[in-house]
Design a protein that fits this description.
10% helix; mainly beta; 2 helices; OB fold (Dihydrolipoamide Acetyltransferase, E2P); 5-stranded mixed β-barrel
């Protein structure tokens, strides 16, 4: 049986990124993301908006880039996977759990709160300020960006269908 654990979200940060370092020296950045969903009919009276607040963890260089370019109110696209965290509450002794998103890819979106300065990347590329993928190495101080042009398809391939 096949398994898939993939999440794609677009939302706004509700707080500035929080950067920490593990005892082994790996950096991790925690993001708090608000994702809105509008439902209902065409009339304003029937329309409802619900907001879901999510915790996102970015490891290593991806987290460093998030901390450098993101701030409260900025929109961001996050692609990643779900992870269940479980622990025992020290005060009550009850078992607790929560689901968080482990970011594997991120794109900084232009816009955000009024008066917020756009990153230098946002000025260069228009709608997106760049894509970052966990695992891609970039020179110090230079974020790794994804190609914006799709790869050409080869007409002569070995796929049997």
């Amino acid at each position: 049986m096949a398994n898939l654990n993939k999440v794609m979200l677009i939302g706004n940060l509700t707080a500035d990124p929080e950067v920490r370092t593990t005892p082994r020296g790996t950096s991790l950045t925690e993001l708090r993301l608000a994702v809105n969903r509008v439902s209902g009919g065409p009339n304003d009276a029937e329309r409802r908006e619900e907001t879901t607040f999510l915790d996102v963890t970015c490891w290593g260089r991806l987290g460093e880039i998030a901390a450098q370019y993101l701030s409260k109110g900025r929109p961001v696209f996050i692609e990643g996977r779900l992870q269940m965290d479980s622990w025992e509450d020290k005060q009550s002794g009850q078992k607790r759990s929560r689901i968080r998103i482990i970011a594997e890819n991120m794109q900084l979106l232009s816009g955000g709160r009024e008066g917020a300065p756009a990153s230098p990347l946002a000025q260069r590329s228009g709608n997106y300020s760049g894509g970052y993928h966990q695992g891609n190495a970039a020179p110090a101080g230079q974020p790794q960006t994804q190609s914006e042009t799709p790869m050409p398809l080869e007409e002569d391939d070995d796929i049997p269908f």
